[in-house]
Design a protein that fits this description.
By secondary structure, the protein is an alpha+beta fold. It is built from 8 helices and 12 strands. The strands form 3 sheets. It has a 6-stranded antiparallel beta sheet. Strands 4-9-6-7 form a 4-stranded antiparallel beta sheet, with no helix packed on it. It has a two-stranded antiparallel sheet with strand order 11-12. Helix 6 packs across helix 8.
Length: about 280
């Protein structure tokens, strides 16, 4: 769980770095499951001088430790502190990043024009090597999860003022093996250029939608599909967490059916419009 000081830092600045979350033995287990996942999904050949990535679901039968982490209190606990006791698991993946050009500034969620959000807590942590400023460490612009600041940064980005990324005032979230970076999905984040492969885990816990607009923003893609999710949802460990997740999915879909709305996003602006389905 986050301490009161960590929680205040997260709510104020939109991120917090959690140190020494995982043990060396746990990291070695993740490395083995990561390699098994790459073998299952196959290698990719990155394009030179471009940003490429491979994202792989890592919560099936071939990655039992990683699948069990979805309900580990070291991760799920802080998610409930930030998003409430009904925080819902949204994504659980392994990533291979080939970001020779860096990852541009972006935010995953947020809509400053409507003032309502699909938002959650994102975790990212290295599993093979530490990440530093010149090797793909995540960069965040503190406070950019707040609507007014996020909107101003969106306009600045459109005007080309956030490039190059290394010259923008930001915090570099350097992490050693065992550390976890937690950040608000609405915050502006990215990585500076580097020439190595970055291998990380990534997870998202969503704030459970409380209004009809939030339910519509959850999107038709929830719950996620794929064989790994099928295996996780089979719930062979008889997990109460997974049973709760199924109930959450049912409630979200029922709310979407009742509200009769969907989200449409225009290609030329970051805002969204709610329209009748």
């Amino acid at each position: 769980m986050l301490s009161e000081q960590q929680l205040l830092h997260y709510r104020t600045f939109g991120y917090v770095i959690m140190r020494n979350v995982f043990t060396p033995d746990e990291i070695r287990t993740m490395e083995k499951e990561f390699d098994a996942t790459v073998e299952r999904d196959g290698e990719i050949v990155p394009k030179a001088n471009e940003t490429n990535h491979q994202h792989m679901l890592i919560l099936g039968d071939d990655s039992p430790f990683s699948a069990a982490l979805t309900e580990d209190e070291r991760l799920y606990g802080p998610a409930t502190q930030v998003c409430g006791q009904d925080a819902v698991l949204w994504e659980w993946r392994a990533y291979r990043w080939f970001t020779f050009k860096g990852t541009e500034w972006h935010c995953n969620d947020g809509d400053a024009t409507l003032g309502c959000y699909l938002y959650g807590l994102i975790y990212q942590w290295p599993v093979f090597a530490p990440v530093h400023a010149d090797t793909g460490a995540l960069r965040v612009i503190p406070g950019s999860h707040r609507p007014e600041f996020q909107w101003e940064l969106s306009k600045a980005d459109a005007a080309g003022l956030l490039d190059p990324i290394a010259e923008v005032g930001a915090v570099v979230c350097e992490a050693e093996l065992g550390d976890v970076v937690a950040f608000d999905s609405r915050i502006f984040h990215g990585t500076a250029p580097y020439d190595k492969v970055r291998r990380t885990y990534g997870a998202i816990y969503l704030h459970f939608p409380e209004t009809r607009e939030e339910a519509a923003m959850t999107g038709a893609a929830f719950p996620p599909g794929g064989e790994q999710w099928v295996q996780w949802r089979a719930n062979k460990p008889h997990s109460a967490f997974r049973e709760k997740w199924e109930d959450q999915v049912k409630r979200i879909k029922e709310a979407q059916d009742r509200c009769g709305l969907r989200v449409e996003r225009a290609a030329d602006r970051p805002s969204a419009e709610l329209v009748r389905a």
